[in-house]
Amino acid sequence: MKTQLLILAIVVSLLLGLSQIMISQEVMNINKKDNTTISIPVSDIQSITFGGNAPVATGNTVTDIEGNVYPVVKIGHQVWMAENLRTTKYNDGTAIKLLPDYDLWKTETGGAFCYYMNNADNKNPFGGLYNFAAVKTGKLCPDGWHVPVLEEWQALTRYLNDIPGAKLKEKGTTNWVKNATNANNETGFTALPGGHRYASGKFTSFGNQGSWWTKTKKSEAEAYYIVIHDYTSLVPSYVSKVNDGRSVRCVRD
């Protein structure tokens, strides 16, 4: 009898220990890169899914040196700002020269920017128009971000296949004077027609096209940029003078 009771006690003890182990295992622990841990009871989990390569918003933002906040979107393996850069300072806190004067604009050799038609009301949502000297400083974008080289823009458009412009452009005619009918902005990139400024100082194309600098030079006098038009879903690249003023989008390092 004593032997039977002893065996029964051992079995009960083992069962209790097993139940405690099972209970302790019913928690999912997620260890984050910042060395914190998230614990989730397994009973609270309905399903677990992992995102694929579809272009979706990350739900994050990035803030520049002077406190401007930009939404962020992930497109393929790249993470982009979803608005045009509008900082008036480099990421080291140094002011970027605001240069509205037409004659001074075309002779400026250092970094400079302006707003379309020298109207500060165009800062939001269209951002600033920067010359290439500002781009090549490597200090326009927030820390951890950079002005994309031509190959990074090309990787973006290849990922979006045959109609990259349609997937990048803001829908409708709120900011575009007219727009290709298939424009859907499915990436959340929200490309806007901020126009540009020629090296001569003249402004043009506002409402009809947006153009963005790459960090890729063709020569000391010319650099590559990409353009999105109102009438097509292609995203071609061209070369322009380094004194032109164009929009900037930053991509994460």
Total number of domains? 2
Note the main sheet. Answer: 3 strands, antiparallel
For the largest beta sheet, what order do the strands appear in spatially?
A: 3-4-5
Number of helices: 6
* SSE string, helices as H and strands as E: HEEEEEEHEHEHEHHEEEEEE
What coarse outline follows from CA principal-axis ratios?
Answer: globular
Number of strands: 15
Q: Strand percentage, roughly? A: 25-35%
Mean residue pLDDT = 86
- Radius of gyration computed on alpha carbons: 27 Å
Please give the alpha-carbon distance between the first and last residues.
74 Å
Which class of secondary structure composition applies to the elements?
A: alpha+beta
Helical content stands at 10-25%
Uncertain runs: 2-12, 14-24, 47-58
Task: Report on this structure.
The protein is α+β, with helices and mostly antiparallel strands. The chain has 2 domains: 2-44, no CATH class; 56-252, no CATH class. It is built from 6 helices and 15 strands. The chain has helices at residues 2-25, 102-107, 123-126, 132-135, 150-159, 164-168, and strands at residues 27-31, 37-41, 56-63, 69-75, 78-81, 97-98, 112-114, 129-130, 145-146, 194-197, 203-206, 209-217, 222-229, 237-241, 251-252. A 3-stranded antiparallel β-sheet has the order 3-4-5, with no helix packed on it. A 3-stranded mixed β-sheet has the order 6-7-8. The protein starts with a helix and ends with a strand. The relative contact order is 0.15.
